[in-house]
Specification:
The protein is mainly α. It is globular, with a radius of gyration of 19 Å.
């Protein structure tokens, strides 16, 4: 007869064990912190977004889609969105409501060429951060999925 340990995680459907989240208090935040904190917080996301927009300004496919007269506003919006998504402050939703990414991008023709240009500029920006391989892969996987999810035409 096997004896269970008090810290054993009960098996869920099909015998798969649910992950355990360690918390600083019973209902408090995760003890390990958020991805936002893990990669350096606001400074890291600000650097990422500014490096991204440095590339966008030189990109003939993307630059016409961005508000040249409100570039700093675009920088702030993307920074706030990414920070919130990764466990940072909820400023984006407080100021702008639900992100509704597809709706907010519906006015723009986002085809494969725009998606690929966005990803190329974001990849260059992400490389400037020199994150750990795991953190880089985690952030890149999300950015790649998001870019593919915003396609709204197959015309270029």
């Amino acid at each position: 007869m096997s004896q269970s340990h008090p810290n054993d995680v009960p098996a869920g459907p099909e015998g798969v064990r649910s992950p355990v989240t360690l918390r600083s208090t019973e209902n408090g935040p995760a003890a390990g912190g958020s991805f936002f904190e893990q990669v350096g917080g606001h400074e890291t996301f600000d650097r990422l977004v500014r490096a991204f927009y440095d590339g966008v300004q030189q990109d003939p496919v993307l630059w016409p889609m961005y508000p040249a007269d409100d570039l700093e506003g675009a920088v702030q919006r993307l920074t706030m969105f990414l920070e919130q998504y990764w466990g940072g402050p909820g400023t984006y939703s407080e100021q702008r409501g639900h992100p509704r990414l597809r709706m907010r991008h519906a006015a723009y023709k986002v085809g494969p060429k725009a998606r690929d240009a966005w990803l190329a500029n974001m990849r260059r920006a992400l490389d400037t951060l020199e994150l750990s391989p795991l953190d880089d892969a985690t952030l890149w996987a999300y950015l790649d999925r998001a870019a593919h999810g915003l396609l709204n035409t197959f015309e270029d």
